[in-house]
Backbone:
């Protein structure tokens, strides 16, 4: 994918984009001053010169460029239809935006639905069964099948119940949203009220552990995507290149070394294989996460 120079003033922000957060723009301006723009914006282009360039993703980066007085900004340009543009925007949002559980679920489900309705929108997607759509969404968005399935349930909550959940402050509580989704549509507002009254569960299992290993993996992956985007924006260019080279050499070993090194530095006990009870619960529910990859069973090599 080739990076092109896009005229800043010619990019049109379509309706529906989230409002600009001035604090985020301030941070980007400072970051760009230090190391430049590390992530190009995404723009929808047309062969018709009379049709303006339409922003797909990167509004805060575009606003930072305007603040800096840039005439041109790096961008990836795509000649895509409405569905394809929206799917690219959602993919970007899931990896960069701070979304509540409800917002994230709605966007994952919207992506899955668009993928099914537009078989040509994604390479290798042939339409077909709902399960095919779940698998495709999980693969393309870099999430688990379970997260896609949960997103479908949460996104199906009625609009009125969603508004009630936001007002009650449970729109970022996955377990409570799933409880609401399990209720009949006409009873979901009442379900919101009942869920809001109950204190958040601190433990998911009777053995005293808050989350199963599979759940910890999913949560860590979601948080990792958010933190990675922040990290990249704060690194100087030389450090970013060095880290990229390190990770590219052997992703598995590199991630393992980083995790173990950070864990030792922070005094965090490393996860071992004493989670058999959690795995038994997952297996009983039909959600067996399978064995750990070999790389996670190795002992860390001694530092040179």
Residues:
């Amino acid at each position: 994918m080739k990076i092109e120079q896009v005229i800043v003033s010619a990019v049109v922000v379509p309706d529906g984009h989230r409002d600009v957060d001035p604090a985020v723009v301030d941070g980007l301006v400072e970051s760009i001053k230090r190391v430049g723009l590390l992530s190009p914006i995404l723009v929808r282009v047309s062969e018709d010169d009379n049709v303006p360039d339409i922003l797909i993703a990167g509004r805060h980066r575009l606003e930072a460029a305007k603040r800096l007085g840039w005439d041109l900004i790096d961008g990836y340009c795509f000649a895509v239809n409405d569905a394809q543009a929206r799917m690219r925007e959602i993919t970007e949002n899931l990896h960069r935006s701070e979304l509540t559980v409800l917002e994230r679920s709605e966007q994952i489900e919207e992506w899955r639905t668009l993928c099914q309705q537009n078989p040509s929108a994604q390479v290798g997607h042939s339409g077909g069964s709902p399960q095919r759509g779940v698998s495709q969404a999980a693969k393309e968005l870099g999430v688990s099948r379970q997260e896609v399935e949960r997103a479908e349930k949460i996104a199906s909550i009625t609009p009125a119940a969603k508004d009630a959940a936001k007002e009650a402050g449970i729109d970022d509580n996955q377990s409570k949203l799933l409880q609401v989704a399990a209720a009949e549509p006409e009873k979901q507002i009442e379900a919101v009220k009942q869920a809001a009254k109950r204190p958040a569960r601190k433990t998911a299992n009777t053995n005293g552990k808050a989350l199963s290993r599979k759940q910890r993996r999913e949560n860590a992956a979601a948080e990792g995507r958010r933190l990675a985007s922040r990290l990249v924006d704060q690194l100087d260019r030389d450090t970013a290149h060095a880290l990229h080279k390190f990770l590219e050499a052997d992703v598995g070993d590199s991630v393992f070394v980083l995790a173990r090194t950070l864990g030792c530095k922070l005094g965090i006990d490393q996860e071992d294989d004493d989670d058999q009870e959690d795995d038994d619960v997952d297996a009983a529910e039909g959600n067996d996460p399978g064995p750990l990859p070999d790389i996670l069973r190795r002992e860390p090599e001694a530092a040179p």
User: Anything to note?
Assistant: The chain has a mean pLDDT of 75. Residues 153 and 181 are 6 Å apart (CA to CA). Residues 87-197 form a domain with the Arc Repressor Mutant, subunit A fold (CATH 1.10.10.2830). The radius of gyration is 22 Å.
